[in-house]
């Protein structure tokens, strides 16, 4: 049975809570990733995703914000010595595509992503994980914003 440590990505880039949105966006571009752990020293205090940056920063016109103002503070994580099956079940249950990985002293040691699962776990198990974690969702259309308009963008005649 594989443990998370067998499939996770090590040596990941982290951000500090006082780093800016711009710095995080540049790191994401450089690394070609959509999420970065936010750490206070070795302690994981949040995650910032490209979605967090757009919805809590750009959409609220807070482009000069610090990460501690826009990051997700409730972080789901797994342990490096945990079986991969349990991490996949957590990802499925929480509908997340990546989990920070910590050691038993709560220090960040890596990240396990859906991509790590897809490339390092047997096909049947990874296919099921991808399907379950990627279940379709509907957009929230309860409110309209100034950006609302015709589907497909542009102006209507």
Automatic annotation (TrEMBL):
- Spell out where the chain crosses the membrane: none
Q: Recite the UniProt keywords alphabetically.
A: CBS domain
Q: Which stretches does the entry tag as region Disordered? A: 123-157
Per its UniProt record, what CDD domains does this chain match?
Answer: CBS_pair_HRP1_like
Does Manganese show up as a keyword for this record? no
Keyword Nucleotide-binding applies: no
**Span of domain CBS:** 8-66, 71-130
Pfam families named among the record's database cross-references: CBS (PF00571)
What is the protein name stated in its UniProt record? CBS domain containing protein
Organism encoding this protein: Acidovorax ebreus (strain TPSY) (Diaphorobacter sp. (strain TPSY))
